[in-house]
What does this fold into?
Amino acid sequence: MISRVATAGSGPVRPTVSLVRFKIAAYVRSHRIIQPFVGLLAIMIVLYSSRVALGQELPSYADSAALLVPVFAWAARGLLDTEPDVQRLISITAAGRPGREVVSGLLASAVIGGGLAVLALVAPLVIGFRAVPSTAVLISGLTLHLLSLLTGTALGALASRPILPDPATSALTMLGGYVAILLVSLVPFAWLTVPLIGWMRAAGRPSFLSRSLPELSAITVFWCAVALATYIRLRRTRP
Amino acid sequence: MRLANLSFRYARRAPWVLQQVDLDLPPGTVAEVTGRNGAGKSTLLRLLAGATRPSRGSITGRPPIVGYAPEIFPVDQPFTVTAYLSHMADVRGVPARAIEAWAERLGMTPLLEVPLGDLSKGSAHKVGLAQALLAPPGLLILDEPFSGLDEQTRAELPGLIDEISTAGGIVVVSDHQNGLAGHPGVTHLTMENGTVLAHEHDPFHERVTRLLPGHDRSAAPEKSIIEILVDHGDAEAVARKLQAEGYEARVRGGGA
It folds into this structure.
């Protein structure tokens, strides 16, 4: 049955994409997706139980993005924790390199979070807003939710089991991290952390898309890149 | 495949699990790793598999396709056997028909539609073996492969290992149950105090080499002899158990 030993390596894309599919399938079949979905539902009810006044669509989207960070973090942590520790070792050997397993976990988390973000963007169009907002507002809302998704995924990854094996420590770190980001972003120096409060404050200004959003995006992407690089670095000794 | 000056510890200030290990595993090698609990066998296997990076030193020449069969297969996953193996075949880029072939050979065809969580220990172990063999491995790592297997599959394993080594693959087996006893050409690797001792083929009739650079036999720790009296019929079994734990054990006397 074993006629030869293969010597050719495979490209990085196929095993990574296949692992993304495997991790998403495991997460969805385990029904863990219900937990962040319930969180999303609660935030949507709080934000849109009464109709948003005309012209207040963007601030609503900014509130939604800031509040959804722990939901995205919960989804990412849940997805990364679904796979048993030994299965991660199997996945690493099947994929050929540890990096592919790490990246596929982050991508799978982003896909799940992306689905939740789409629901958060579409729900107010159906039940919350009095009229369909302008394209500029929709683009700003989409960008804010992508930033929220990025922040939540990075936070959830840092709180996942390979990094923090104790569930209680992990949950406290995740929620404590979110609260810390909120508190630090209250101070006037926007570069200190992901500026969650800055998102909400700036969304009320008329020039948000052209003037505020690029700077806020740059700060957010910088801190998320630092967090994700830390996660990837830590995973080198925590397979 | 070569391990050069390899050392590993889990954190910067943690104790070393492996220190300055040099090891050569040429194509076709079948190596059996033994050692006491906590000696670092699993760590060595993970390093060999490429799941963990060495703290110092290097591993070169690792074959591109690695199969890793864990000691305890993780059944806590929401898939049937077929669905799970299909995902693993997809990750490895092999056609799904490979699943049926290995299912038949390992005697698990009736289990294909069974959820992983409903499998017995032995059946789960077969799934772990099957996923490691889906693509012809250049390096096959088996962690306690004989544990919990039925007689038919236990008998099948040595032949399977031979096939891989004959095709030029490297097989590394962690084995407490001495399932490879009598298997020809096995290199015995004994884990002890963070080092690896390689016994060429038979540990009692071949040269013992300490694979620590600059560490000759004269520097080896002093040995003591413990006399253990057992029934003649049990002697071989007890000796094998001690050998599996990494001790030199030999049977003297013939029950006369």
In short: The helical segments of chain B are 41-49, 81-92, 97-105, 121-133, 151-166, 232-244. Confidence is low (pLDDT under 50) at residues 202-220 of chain B.
